[in-house]
Every structure is written in structure tokens, then in C-alpha cells.
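Lecture 7 notes: from sequence to structure.
We start with the chain below.
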Amino acid sequence: MNLEDMILVSVDDHICEPPDMWADHISSKWKDRVPKMVRKPDGTDVWVFEGQQLINVGLNAVAGRPPEEYGMEPTSLGQLRDGCYQVDARIDDMNASGILGSLCFSSVPGFVGELFANQDDKEMAAAMVRGYNDWHIDGWCGAHPGRFIPLAIPMMWDPELMAEEVRRVARKGCHAMTFPDAPTNLGFPSIHSESWDPFWRACDEEGTIVCIHIGSGTKMKLEDMAAPIEIMITSTPISLYGCAAELTFSKFLRKYDNLKIALSEGGTGWVPYFLERADYVYEHHRFWTKQDFGKKLPSDVFREHIVTCFIDDAVGVANRDLIGIDNITWECDYPHSDTTWPEASERLWKSLEGLSDAEIHKITHLNAMEHFNYDPFQHIPREQATVEALRAQATDIDLSLKRGGGGKSPSDYETGFVTIGDVVQQMASAISTPME
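Predicted C-alpha cells for the same chain:
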């Protein structure tokens, strides 16, 4: 197989929602209360909801910008590539990188719809969640059948409503829903609480994969504000190590045979040691901890239920047999700063050196198709889905760098390099500037 023959499906990308997203997907009862995009006097675009000014529209949406301008910027739609928030332009950018399919996490509502979950008016909150999901499924994904894996957000405050929404969106063809890695950090019950059972059961019965994204519940470690920001960026994917332990040793995961959970943007290189450690702990301590996996080991349960996801992880690919080749998927992370776009095909191909064609197909698209209930070939012939075929449709796409309006030079920082404190300050300033 050659690079051009690959078929790429990314199971982790992101949307910067467009200003008109609510136009056709919310009832007249709630139209006056939906989030609205506002242009501030300083030229910044922000979303405003229930009197609350949210963080800027382009938070870390830096795809197509010079690396020296990466950061929490850009702060307005005009500084973004159109593909960040316009679905037709997103298809162009996917084609330019040879990517067939994409699953996109939300931005404005938060990864798990926490913006709506935090509202006192739960009737309104539920309407907003349904409206968002309908826009995402029908408006965004429905605009280009076969090119997107739809992903819904939950009503986190009510597991019964969550279950109803799982079943409702499943009837619309959506078989993926988000969930936080640490729900207690958001004020919800422990992941080990039986109160979540209606949700797990619905996902199990509907074939809906649960997507747990880094940062969806675990708070950033910001104790040392003087620390280089690289420390936080480097350690963030491995923050799902703790979530993996919670899941593997939970009772509910063994209760629902068909339940699948994706550790989105968590990487794979750490998984072999995690599995080795989990088995050692179980065999060494189970007599007094009273854990009982029957004839299985924790690593068996992990491989049966957990889907791993990586952006650029040669170590994980090299250890694919220890992880489980059937559970490894690939992601591009467009348009965030970790993305490999537009060289995603070339970057991934380097990691796949020495793999058989069958293994490459599993990692690049077959595993994603199976676990995410996604079949693009109902709409797009396989021969038109390769890197080569898609790039042939994007020869006129402008890939020149979009410069200006974001980023700071090292001289702008007291330490000469970016610290965690600098980033926190930038995020705070994005919502602190008065509207008028």
C-alpha cells in the first residue's frame, strides 16, 4: 500500500459553531434565549448566553496559522480558516489533507453540554441540548452525507433524559455521545454511581459509543503559574490514564456487554504499561479488595470496551499488539494546535511504516467504522475515498498561512517564554473586556 491509497477517518476534530446555527433548529419558544454571537468594540467575536459572555469563538483554533501565532488566539471569525466554522469549507480542508470522515466535538456548549447543564431553567436547557444536537446531526453532518460521524451532547443533570436523548438521536443516525472523564468535577455523581445506569443501558442497546475527551471533567493542573505551558500540553493526554483506571475497575463496564467508550485525544503510547499495571494490581490485591473479574483480567475488559485514539503516536502503533489492534483509531484534531493538518496523511504514514495493509486499514478507518457505527461507503464509493482521490478534489484550496491578529512574541512575556499563568490570563481577558 502507498500513502495515497489510505482511507482516513478522524475520530476527534472540533467545530467553532457558526453564528446562524440556531436559525432552523430551535422552537420559537426559545429563539430569544439561544446563544448569540456578538462583535465587541475591540473587534473580538464572543458568544453571549443568559447574560454570560463566553470565551472567544476561536479558542485555540489555529489550523492554517503560523506556528509562532499559536495560542488561545484567534479571537474573531475573520482570523479563522473558513473550515473552522463553515461546513462546506471544512469539507475542502478535509479533502486537502486526504481525510474522508470526521467526528467533531462541540465548542460553545462545552464538551458535555455543561453550558446548558449549569442553567437553572432545565426545560430551557433541555431544549438547547436538543436544538444543538439537531443542528449538529441535520445541519452540520447532514450537509455532506458520509463525511461526518455525528456526535451528540448529553443532558448531564438527568440520566433518564440522557437515555431518552441517546435513543432519539440514534433514530436520526447518531450513535455517539459525549461524557466527562470526571463527572464529580462538574458537580455530578461519581462515575461509579448507579444513577448513570439508564444512560449506560441506552448506549449499550443502541450501539452508541461514549466519547470521553481530555479536559471534559478533569481540571487543568494550574498550581505553578510560572511553569512553562509545555508541561500542561505534554501531560494532558495522559490525564485519561486515571479515567482508564476508573472505567476498567468499574462494575458497570462489565455489566453492559456492548458498551464502548472512546478515550478521545488520549493517545495510546501509555496504554501497554497501564494494562500491565492493572493486571498486576488485580492479581496482587484482589483477595482483600474483593474485586472479581471471573476468568478475565482487567486488560481483557479494557480491550473489550475501550477504544483508544491518537494523533501522532509512533510508540503506540509500534506496541499495537499489546494495546489491541482492533481498538486503535486515528484523529486529526482540526483545527486545534495539536493538529497534523494539512500534512495529516504524511505524518500518519510515518507512524505506519512496516504495518501490513490489513493493520493500516484497521487503524485508518475500519476500526472507526465499526466502533462509531459509521459507513461512509453508503454514500461515497470506496475508490473515491482515498487520500489521492480526495486531494484531487482540492487542488484549488488555498493552504497559504493566515497571518495576523493573534499570538505574541517571546518579548511580550516577562519570562521570555509562555507560562501556564500567561495562558490563564489570556483566557480570562477573553471574557473580561466589557461589551460596550
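Points to note: Residues 3-432 form a domain with the TIM Barrel fold (CATH 3.20.20.140). The chain has a mean pLDDT of 92.
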